[in-house]
Specification:
By secondary structure, the chain is α+β, with helices and mostly antiparallel strands. It is 17% helix and 20% strand. Strands 1-2-3-5-4 form a five-stranded antiparallel β-sheet, covered by helices on one side.
């Protein structure tokens, strides 16, 4: 199934602005983020405009993050996907953000991705 009818069929045909390739697999390319939230922020980008490739990108991001935690390189990680202008998407091609987290990188990490809406992150207060 195609992710979006408005997008071209392949990453090569898209206007996605990425460079700095870290890894190039059959269906997913991994790039360093141009504007990283933290050191090691990566983008897992499906090469094809298909949901199975987007799923594979998410799976590879999760696997990489878990491996970095297991090695002790990171304390945790966030995975995110911005879909649509209202969600902050600025590049018209699906991609998965893998954002490394380290102890103390923010004062209160409760809520994780809920912090995309200011004041909505900490649901414990």
């Amino acid at each position: 199934m195609k992710i979006s009818k408005e997008l071209p069929d392949t990453l090569a045909e898209s206007s996605a602005p990425w460079d700095n390739v870290v890894q190039d697999e059959t269906h997913v390319v991994v790039f360093l983020d141009r504007y990283p939230c933290t050191p090691g922020h990566l983008l897992f980008v499906p090469k094809f405009n298909r949901t199975d490739c987007l799923y594979q990108a998410f799976n590879e991001a999760y696997t990489h993050g878990a491996w970095q935690v297991e090695k002790g390189e990171w304390a945790g990680f966030n995975i995110g996907l911005n879909s649509g202008e209202a969600a902050g998407q600025t590049v018209a091609w699906p991609h998965v953000h893998l954002i490394p987290r380290r102890q103390g990188d923010v004062e209160d990490p409760v809520g994780g991705v809920r912090n995309t809406i200011p004041g909505q992150g900490n649901y414990r207060k």
